[in-house]
Amino acid sequence: MNPRGRNPYRRNPVDDRTAAPGADAARRSGRHRTARTHVSALGAALALVGAMTWAAPPAVAETASVRCTGTNVIKYNPGVTYQERTVQINGQDNATSCVDTVSGESLSFVAPFSGKFTTSCASLFTGGTGTQTLKWNTGETSQWEWTMHFSTNVNGQLQSIADGPILGGRYAGAQLRQVVTVTTLDQGACSTEKGLTQTGGPSNWEFTG
Question: Are residue 85 and residue 161 in the same domain, yes or no?
Fold first, then answer.
């Protein structure tokens, strides 16, 4: 191992008499320029990191988590029989108690609906699609597009289930499910001339998304 400063294969610019005059100063000047360049680049990088660190966080979409309880009533005119015919329906959903678990608000809404369709007691509960406007106690509305399904629970009670998106207004973009337990259902009326004139029962709604 060679002693420090005694490497015979390395020229020492301080002792080297052949070095061009001013070469050492030029080297020092070059090192200073390089250092300034590094400092400038470091400063720009730190400024960029600072800007990234303090940039405003992206907006987070609002979510909905609302549960409501109430009632559902549908009236048919003329009454529905086993013979298929066109009937006028008029009804209303009343959500008397709603809790928004995100905002903590206590809410309620009413949602009247009406229309005509051709049906019979044999096909009344086979489903359908439609739209409905929910009118909140806050003065706001929600436009709901639903698809209806029917099923029987383990106790043999008929349940009407509707699912679909909220297309506009309060909770736009959320999904809504309504479950009605059909307690007003006189199937014997289907065999009479008057027919079945009303169905309904307690209802639950759940907004998610």
Answer: yes
Sequence-distant (6+) residues with CB within 8 A of 167 are 131, 143, 144, 145
| Residue range of the domain that includes 102 | 65-208
Nearest to 91 by CA among 163, 159, 164, 182: 182
Number of domains in the chain: 2
Residue with tokens 């369709």: 117
- CA of residue 55 relative to chain centroid, distance: 25
pTM over 0.70: no
Which amino acid, one-letter code, is at 137? N
Whether residue 44 sits in one domain with residue 96? no
The pLDDT tens digits of the residues spanning 129-150 come to 889 999 999 999 999 999 988 7
Instruction: Give per-residue pLDDT as tens, 4-46.
Output: 444 433 334 334 444 444 545 444 444 444 434 433 443 433 3
Residue type, 64: A
192 and 164 within one domain: yes
